[in-house]
Amino acid sequence: MTAIHRRTQLGKTGPGVFPIALGCMGMSGAYGPSDERESIATIHEAIERGVTLLDTADFYANGHNELLIRRALEGQRAKVQLSVKFGAMRGPDGALVGFDGRPAAVKNFVTYSLQRLGVDYIDVYRPARLDPAVPIEDTVGAIAELVKGGYVRNIGLSEVGAETIRRAAKVHPLSDLQIEYALITREPEKAIFPTLAELGMSATLYGVLSRGLLTGAKAEGARQHFPRFSGEAGQRNAAAVARFHAFAAERGMTPAQLAVAWVLAKQPMLVPVVGARTRKQLLDVLGALDKPLSPADVAAVEATLPTDAIAGTRYPEQQMKLLDSER
């Protein structure tokens, strides 16, 4: 692996991180069964390969994901940066029951995350969504107090639009926005990415594999609820993705490598977050760093799988309505 010493800066104020981040949500059963030993081994392998940024949330499997990361990081905390999302609330059955961005809630959430993770501070702390009942200035202001107290190093946002980003940035410098971005999900290019560039912010890009759609994953676990995987849309998308797979094979790449390489070529200053659950998946994805795409390659990929070839929204309709980034 040739990229171990590369770093991508998370905005003007954030840390320098490895050019690919590891998303840990899938290690807690989000997309079907996962093996804890393999998950921990995958985190260890990622660190050994130079990966520094680990992404999680306090509501992933009701705290299980943070506890898993705690076990994986014993003796290795200094080698990584932790990006933690907060705010989503769950019932005892695991169902999402709302969102809370009030200042008191922010301080409560971080207290429990620090305990579960077994750390003294969080590198990047961010609300997972915008709470429509709480001004973003209040939420970010509460995190700013945590920065002063030494509990948080940097402030990030997630799935919010340009106007909200600007308002939040007036309260405290922001490192990055977490937003979904992939070959078939390119809306952030219109207004969000230009706003980030203007404000000196970066982005951590999740959904780079489109929840496994681009790699041919089965519609199991959470995927069965996403429009792009089901019904007529699912059948149409499978045919389009087959062309993408054929293109990757012609280039001597796996579909995952091609999807990640496209993002790295298209947005070299931003950081894709890839949810590898096994060491095999991790090493496959990291291989993209050694197979960069030329501008001609990028154009060819986009011609093979244009965004209008994919049917369905990235989230179910009700969730789409809640996304500030889609307004």
From TrEMBL:
Gene3D superfamilies attached to this UniProt entry: NADP-dependent oxidoreductase domain
Domain NADP-dependent oxidoreductase: 19-303
PROSITE patterns xref list: PROKAR_LIPOPROTEIN
Superkingdom of origin organism: Bacteria
Keywords: Oxidoreductase
Listed SUPFAM superfamilies: NAD(P)-linked oxidoreductase
Protein name per the record: Aldo/keto reductase
Source organism of this protein record: Pyxidicoccus parkwayensis
Lineage start: Bacteria, Pseudomonadati, Myxococcota, Myxococcia, Myxococcales
